[in-house]
Amino acid sequence: MKTVLVLNGPNLNLLGTREPQVYGSQSLEDVKALCQGACKSHGFALDFRQSNHEGELVDWIHEAGKSHAAGNLAGVVLNAGAYTHTSVALHDAIKGTGIVLIELHISNVHAREAFRHHSFISPVAKAVMAGFGVKGYAMAIAGLADLA
Ligand code: DQA
Protein backbone atom coordinates (compact mmCIF):
# COMPACT_ATOMS: atom_id res chain seq x y z
CA MET A 1 0.00 0.00 0.00
CA LYS A 2 1.43 3.38 -1.01
CA THR A 3 1.46 6.35 1.32
CA VAL A 4 0.11 9.86 0.83
CA LEU A 5 2.09 12.42 2.80
CA VAL A 6 0.06 15.49 3.77
CA LEU A 7 2.26 18.35 4.91
CA ASN A 8 0.95 21.50 6.57
CA GLY A 9 3.07 24.56 7.08
CA PRO A 10 3.03 27.48 9.51
CA ASN A 11 -0.09 28.52 11.42
CA LEU A 12 -2.17 25.63 10.12
CA ASN A 13 -2.11 24.23 13.66
CA LEU A 14 -4.47 27.14 14.41
CA LEU A 15 -7.17 25.94 12.00
CA GLY A 16 -10.63 26.26 13.49
CA THR A 17 -9.82 29.38 15.50
CA ARG A 18 -7.68 31.32 13.00
CA GLU A 19 -9.72 33.64 10.73
CA PRO A 20 -12.67 31.21 10.49
CA GLN A 21 -14.28 33.46 7.87
CA VAL A 22 -11.33 32.60 5.59
CA TYR A 23 -10.31 29.08 6.67
CA GLY A 24 -13.53 27.69 8.16
CA SER A 25 -14.24 26.25 11.58
CA GLN A 26 -12.72 22.80 11.21
CA SER A 27 -9.56 22.03 13.17
CA LEU A 28 -6.39 20.39 11.84
CA GLU A 29 -7.50 17.19 13.64
CA ASP A 30 -10.74 17.35 11.61
CA VAL A 31 -8.68 17.77 8.43
CA LYS A 32 -6.59 14.74 9.42
CA ALA A 33 -9.80 12.68 9.85
CA LEU A 34 -11.00 13.89 6.43
CA CYS A 35 -7.69 12.81 4.87
CA GLN A 36 -7.84 9.47 6.68
CA GLY A 37 -11.27 8.82 5.10
CA ALA A 38 -10.07 9.83 1.63
CA CYS A 39 -6.96 7.65 1.90
CA LYS A 40 -9.02 4.69 3.08
CA SER A 41 -11.38 4.96 0.10
CA HIS A 42 -8.47 5.12 -2.35
CA GLY A 43 -6.36 2.38 -0.76
CA PHE A 44 -3.59 4.67 0.54
CA ALA A 45 -1.92 4.88 3.93
CA LEU A 46 -1.83 8.40 5.39
CA ASP A 47 1.12 10.25 6.89
CA PHE A 48 -0.16 13.64 8.16
CA ARG A 49 2.15 16.30 9.60
CA GLN A 50 2.32 20.01 10.48
CA SER A 51 5.28 22.26 11.22
CA ASN A 52 5.83 25.96 11.79
CA HIS A 53 9.49 25.55 10.73
CA GLU A 54 10.69 25.83 7.13
CA GLY A 55 13.73 23.56 7.63
CA GLU A 56 11.59 20.80 9.10
CA LEU A 57 9.32 20.94 6.04
CA VAL A 58 12.44 20.76 3.82
CA ASP A 59 13.62 17.68 5.78
CA TRP A 60 10.22 16.04 5.32
CA ILE A 61 10.30 16.69 1.54
CA HIS A 62 13.73 14.99 1.43
CA GLU A 63 12.29 12.04 3.37
CA ALA A 64 9.43 11.90 0.84
CA GLY A 65 12.02 11.81 -1.96
CA LYS A 66 13.56 8.66 -0.45
CA SER A 67 10.14 7.07 -0.05
CA HIS A 68 9.33 8.01 -3.69
CA ALA A 69 12.60 6.44 -4.89
CA ALA A 70 11.74 3.26 -2.97
CA GLY A 71 8.33 3.13 -4.70
CA ASN A 72 6.39 3.62 -1.45
CA LEU A 73 4.92 7.09 -2.02
CA ALA A 74 1.75 7.93 -3.97
CA GLY A 75 2.45 11.63 -3.61
CA VAL A 76 2.54 14.64 -1.35
CA VAL A 77 -0.22 17.17 -0.64
CA LEU A 78 1.48 20.36 0.55
CA ASN A 79 -0.21 23.33 2.14
CA ALA A 80 2.93 25.36 2.76
CA GLY A 81 0.95 28.26 4.24
CA ALA A 82 2.87 31.53 4.04
CA TYR A 83 6.07 29.71 2.98
CA THR A 84 4.30 29.23 -0.38
CA HIS A 85 4.98 32.88 -1.10
CA THR A 86 8.54 33.09 0.27
CA SER A 87 10.39 29.78 0.21
CA VAL A 88 13.03 29.16 -2.43
CA ALA A 89 14.24 26.38 -0.10
CA LEU A 90 10.97 24.46 -0.45
CA HIS A 91 11.00 25.02 -4.22
CA ASP A 92 14.51 23.58 -4.47
CA ALA A 93 13.75 20.65 -2.17
CA ILE A 94 10.72 19.60 -4.25
CA LYS A 95 12.63 20.04 -7.52
CA GLY A 96 15.49 17.91 -6.21
CA THR A 97 13.34 14.91 -5.27
CA GLY A 98 11.12 14.13 -8.29
CA ILE A 99 8.10 13.58 -6.01
CA VAL A 100 4.54 14.06 -7.27
CA LEU A 101 3.27 17.03 -5.27
CA ILE A 102 -0.07 18.80 -5.16
CA GLU A 103 0.05 22.40 -3.93
CA LEU A 104 -3.02 23.07 -1.84
CA HIS A 105 -4.63 26.15 -0.32
CA ILE A 106 -7.82 26.22 1.69
CA SER A 107 -8.61 29.75 0.51
CA ASN A 108 -8.52 31.12 -3.02
CA VAL A 109 -5.17 32.90 -2.67
CA HIS A 110 -5.71 34.72 -6.00
CA ALA A 111 -8.79 36.48 -4.64
CA ARG A 112 -6.80 37.77 -1.65
CA GLU A 113 -3.89 40.18 -1.06
CA ALA A 114 -1.38 40.63 -3.91
CA PHE A 115 1.44 39.13 -1.81
CA ARG A 116 -0.42 35.79 -1.90
CA HIS A 117 -0.58 35.70 -5.70
CA HIS A 118 2.98 34.47 -6.22
CA SER A 119 3.91 30.90 -5.37
CA PHE A 120 7.39 29.39 -5.28
CA ILE A 121 5.71 25.96 -5.12
CA SER A 122 3.54 26.10 -8.27
CA PRO A 123 6.39 25.73 -10.82
CA VAL A 124 7.47 22.44 -9.18
CA ALA A 125 3.98 21.09 -8.39
CA LYS A 126 2.08 18.56 -10.48
CA ALA A 127 -1.17 20.42 -9.77
CA VAL A 128 -2.43 23.40 -7.79
CA MET A 129 -5.68 23.61 -5.82
CA ALA A 130 -7.08 26.64 -4.04
CA GLY A 131 -10.41 27.77 -2.71
CA PHE A 132 -12.31 24.54 -1.98
CA GLY A 133 -11.99 24.96 1.78
CA VAL A 134 -10.65 22.00 3.77
CA LYS A 135 -12.54 19.63 1.43
CA GLY A 136 -9.75 20.38 -1.03
CA TYR A 137 -7.52 17.98 0.94
CA ALA A 138 -9.81 15.03 0.13
CA MET A 139 -10.05 16.21 -3.49
CA ALA A 140 -6.26 16.37 -3.76
CA ILE A 141 -5.97 12.79 -2.44
CA ALA A 142 -8.57 11.70 -5.03
CA GLY A 143 -6.44 13.49 -7.64
CA LEU A 144 -3.37 11.51 -6.57
CA ALA A 145 -5.38 8.28 -6.89
CA ASP A 146 -6.36 9.32 -10.41
CA LEU A 147 -2.73 9.98 -11.34
CA ALA A 148 -1.54 6.62 -9.93
C1 DQA B 1 -3.06 29.23 2.85
C2 DQA B 1 -2.94 30.58 2.13
C3 DQA B 1 -1.64 31.28 2.51
O1 DQA B 1 -1.55 32.51 1.82
C4 DQA B 1 -1.62 31.54 3.99
O2 DQA B 1 -0.39 32.16 4.36
C5 DQA B 1 -1.88 30.34 4.80
C6 DQA B 1 -2.91 29.40 4.36
C7 DQA B 1 -4.41 28.55 2.59
O3 DQA B 1 -4.52 27.37 2.92
O4 DQA B 1 -5.34 29.18 2.08
O5 DQA B 1 -1.31 30.16 5.88
O6 DQA B 1 -2.04 28.37 2.37
Radius of gyration: 14 Å
Structurally, the number of domains stands at: 1
| Span between termini | 12 Å
Helices and strands, in N-to-C order? Answer: EHHEHEHEEH
Q: Average pLDDT across residues?
A: 97
CATH topology descriptor: Rossmann fold
Which descriptor suits the 3D outline? globular
Number of continuous helical runs: 5
CATH class designation: Alpha Beta
Bound molecules: 1,3,4-trihydroxy-5-OXO-cyclohexanecarboxylic acid
> Main sheet?
5 strands, parallel
Give the helix proportion (percent range). 25-40%
CATH homologous superfamily label: Dehydroquinase, class II
How are strands sequenced across the largest beta sheet?
2-1-3-4-5
Write the layout of secondary structure elements.
Blueprint: E1 3-8, H1 20-23, H2 28-42, E2 45-50, H3 54-69, E3 73-79, H4 88-97, E4 101-105, E5 127-130, H5 135-147
Parallel strand pairs: 1-2, 1-3, 3-4, 4-5
Helix pairs in contact: 2-5, 3-4
Describe this entry's structure for a reader.
With 148 residues, this protein is α/β, with parallel strands linked by helices. It has a single domain (3-147), classed as Dehydroquinase, class II (Rossmann fold, 3-Layer(aba) Sandwich), CATH 3.40.50. The chain has 5 helices and 5 strands. It has helices at residues 20-23, 28-42, 54-69, 88-97, 135-147; strands at residues 3-8, 45-50, 73-79, 101-105, 127-130. Strands 2-1-3-4-5 form a 5-stranded parallel beta sheet, sandwiched between helices. The longest helix has 16 residues, at 54-69. The protein binds 1,3,4-trihydroxy-5-OXO-cyclohexanecarboxylic acid. 1,3,4-trihydroxy-5-OXO-cyclohexanecarboxylic acid (DQA) is lined by residues 11, 79, 81-82, 84, 105-107, 109, 116. 1,3,4-trihydroxy-5-OXO-cyclohexanecarboxylic acid is lined by residues 11, 79, 81-82, 84, 105-107, 109, 116.
